[in-house]
Design a protein that fits this description.
The two termini are 16 Å apart. With 237 residues, this protein is of the alpha/beta class. Helix content is 31%, strand content 22%. A 9-stranded mixed sheet has the order 2-1-3-7-4-8-11-9-10, with helices on both faces. A two-stranded antiparallel ribbon has the order 5-6. The protein has a single domain, classed as 3-Layer(aba) Sandwich (Aminopeptidase). The protein is globular. The protein is built from 6 helices and 11 strands.
Length: 237
C-alpha cells in the first residue's frame, strides 16, 4: 500500500470527505521532520490546522496503527484540555519510518461521553483501519509521574499487545518504564478500551513523559520505538 496523507472531515463514517494534503516527505533529519509534521497540530495555539472533529490519516502496509487522539486541544467533562504536544507529529513520523498507519486528531474535539456518540473522522478511521492491526495509542504525561514511559494494557490485552509491551520493556530497559501505572488504559473513554471492547481488536496505550517529547530528546529514543515495531512485525507476521 503506498503511503499517503489525508485530512478527513466527516459528520458520520458513511459520509467522509477526504481532502488530500500537499505534504510530501523530504529527506530531512528526524528532528526536522517531526518539527515539520508537528506544525499543523501546533497551529492556532494547538487548536490544529484542521476544522473541528477532523483527523489526519496516513496510510501504510505494516499491521500497526499509531493514534494520537490528543494531538490538539480537546474537551473532557465539559472542560478544555491542553494538547499532548508532540504526539501528532510523533504518530506521523513513526508511521513514515515503519510503513504503518497513523490516525491523529487534527482539529478541536468537542465534548463527548461515550464512543457510540462519536461519528467524527477520528472515530470513523479507527473503526475502518484498526481491524487486523495493533493500535498503539500515543499520549503525553507530565514529568512529575517520575517515569519515562507508561504502558497501559487496557481491559482485555491480547497476546499481540502483550508481546509488543514485552519488546518495549526489553528495548527501553535503561529507562524507567511502568506497566499499568499510573495509567492502565481501562477507562471506557480510552482508545485502547474502545478498540479492545467495542471493535474486538488489539491495542495498548503508551504514555510518554514531557521531557521525551522535546525535540532535543527525540533522537535518543524514537529509534527504539521503530526497532520495537520492526521486531514485533518479524515475530508475528
Amino acid at each position: 500500500m503506498p503511503i499517503s496523507r489525508e485530512l478527513i472531515v466527516c459528520s458520520a463514517p458513511s459520509s467522509c470527505v477526504c481532502v488530500h494534503s500537499s505534504f510530501s516527505p523530504k529527506p530531512l533529519s528526524r528532528v526536522s521532520r517531526w518539527r515539520a509534521l508537528e506544525a499543523a497540530y501546533a497551529s492556532r495555539g494547538y487548536a490544529g490546522a484542521g476544522p473541528p472533529w477532523s483527523a489526519v490519516l496516513r496510510t501504510g502496509s505494516l499491521p500497526l496503527l499509531w493514534s494520537a487522539p490528543h494531538a490538539v486541544r480537546h474537551m473532557r467533562h465539559g472542560r478544555v484540555k491542553r494538547a499532548e504536544r508532540g504526539t501528532g507529529g510523533l504518530a506521523e513520523l513513526l508511521a513514515l519510518e515503519t510503513g504503518a498507519i497513523a490516525v491523529c486528531a487534527a482539529g478541536h474535539v468537542g465534548n463527548w461521553e461515550i464512543w457510540k456518540e462519536r461519528e467524527d473522522a477520528f472515530a470513523a478511521s479507527l473503526r475502518s483501519f484498526s481491524q487486523g492491526r495493533l493500535v498503539i495509542d500515543l499520549h503525553g504525561m507530565t514529568d512529575h509521574h517520575q517515569a519515562d514511559l507508561c504502558i497501559g494494557l487496557g481491559p482485555s490485552p491480547s497476546l499481540l499487545s502483550r508481546s509488543f509491551a514485552a519488546l518495549l520493556l526489553y528495548r527501553f530497559s535503561a529507562a524507567k518504564v511502568l506497566v499499568n501505572a499510573p495509567f492502565d488504559a481501562t477507562p471506557a473513554y480510552t482508545v485502547t478500551s474502545f478498540v479492545q471492547q467495542h471493535l474486538h481488536g488489539d491495542a495498548l496505550q503508551l504514555e510518554i513523559r514531557a521531557g521525551w517529547r522535546e525535540l532535543d530528546e527525540l533522537c535518543t529514543w524514537v529509534r527504539g520505538l521503530v526497532d520495537v515495531a520492526e521486531n514485533w512485525q518479524g515475530e508475528h507476521y
